[in-house]
Design brief:
Length: 246
């Protein structure tokens, strides 16, 4: 019953992304207002540079959960809807500090680069505080097929290979993924967009890394088994505004 209460949305058929705005009156923004995400990233649209600083000071107890739409990593405190902020993992930009709330995965990638999608995209969701009106920023990282395992994803894959996590369930996980990934983010595409799932809230700062990480074929197979297809199609910018910094 829990899924029905939340106006079941998904990625295929009549409750897929094209219909989200019809499923619940609070999802109206998903129809595409001004600045919806994901978009196709074209290098020529990005001219100015944005500097961001990513940090993880120390590890913490984390859980891997299945919320019915993706696999998500967050602190063991808090709930699926409202993860506790991880104050030792930060994104700093323009003198403002955002704290990591959770990260999760989409397959194939939601953002495209020059018209092409990649195998997998991780989204690290940060907030300025745990208040209702906190600002949000998301770091997007692409993964594509390579020869070697991605060590940061291995703890997630090991859990999936033993036994996938049931919907609305979670398991404890020891992982330092953010630290390893953050060190490799050198250049980002930056623009103002939205959440890529209902209610598709706008005014979200996006930073998408242009550095693609690699995953091995066996890791891809394991992740594909549980994520299946959970990607929103690219959006047109209805405000005529284009992303501008890189």
């Amino acid at each position: 019953p829990r899924e029905e209460e939340k106006s079941a949305w998904g990625y295929l058929g009549s409750n897929g992304p094209a219909y989200w705005y019809q499923l619940n009156e609070t999802y109206g923004t998903c129809k595409g207002i001004k600045q919806q995400t994901p978009i196709d990233l074209k290098v020529e649209d990005f001219t100015n540079s944005t500097q961001i600083e990513l940090n993880v000071i120390k590890p913490t107890d984390l859980i891997l959960l299945n919320n019915g739409h993706t696999y998500q990593v967050q602190r063991s405190e808090g709930t699926i809807e409202k993860p506790a902020l991880y104050e030792d993992a930060t994104l700093k930009v323009d003198g403002e500090t955002y704290y990591l709330a959770q990260y999760h995965f989409h397959m194939p990638s939601e953002h495209h680069i020059e018209g092409r999608d990649l195998l997998l995209e991780g989204h690290w969701v940060f907030k300025t505080s745990s208040e209702q009106d906190a600002k949000a920023a998301v770091l997007g990282v692409f993964f594509d097929l390579g020869e070697r395992d991605e060590p940061g994803l291995e703890p997630i894959v090991e859990i999936i290979d033993k036994k996938p996590v049931e919907v609305n369930d979670h398991v404890n996980i020891t992982i330092s993924l953010s630290e390893q990934i953050f060190k490799r983010v050198k250049t980002v595409y930056s623009y103002i967009g939205s959440l890529t799932t209902p209610p598709c809230t706008e005014d979200i700062r996006w930073f998408v890394s242009s550095d693609v990480q690699s995953i091995s074929p066996s890791q891809f197979k394991s992740l594909k088994y549980v994520l299946k297809y959970n990607s929103r199609f690219t959006q047109k910018r209805l405000d005529g505004g284009e992303p501008t910094s890189h």
